[in-house]
Amino acid sequence: MKNEKTVGDGVKFERIRRITGYLVGTTDRFNDGKKAEERDRVKHGTEGLNVAK
């Protein structure tokens, strides 16, 4: 099954995050305080979840 495709292959997307109450795509315009808040947050993954592959 070499040529098997996954749903969404080749589709570009932009990551949107909610940080300090705002929806943002990038953090390049954040001041040091907001960047520190984002950096210090707990990151959650999908390991252990029943996610279709």
Describe the 3D structure:
By secondary structure, this protein is of the alpha+beta class. It has a domain at 12-43. Helices cover 17% and strands 11% of the residues. Strands 1-2 form a two-stranded antiparallel ribbon. Strand 1 (17-19) and strand 2 form a beta hairpin. The longest helix is centred in the C-terminal third of the chain and has 9 residues, at 32-40. The model has no long low-confidence stretch (mean pLDDT 77).
**Low-confidence sequence ranges:** none
Helical residue percent?
Answer: 10-25%
H/E element sequence = EEH
Record field, number of beta strands:
2
C-alpha geometry: elongated
Mean pLDDT over all positions: 77
List keywords for this structure.
single chain; alpha+beta; 1 helix; elongated
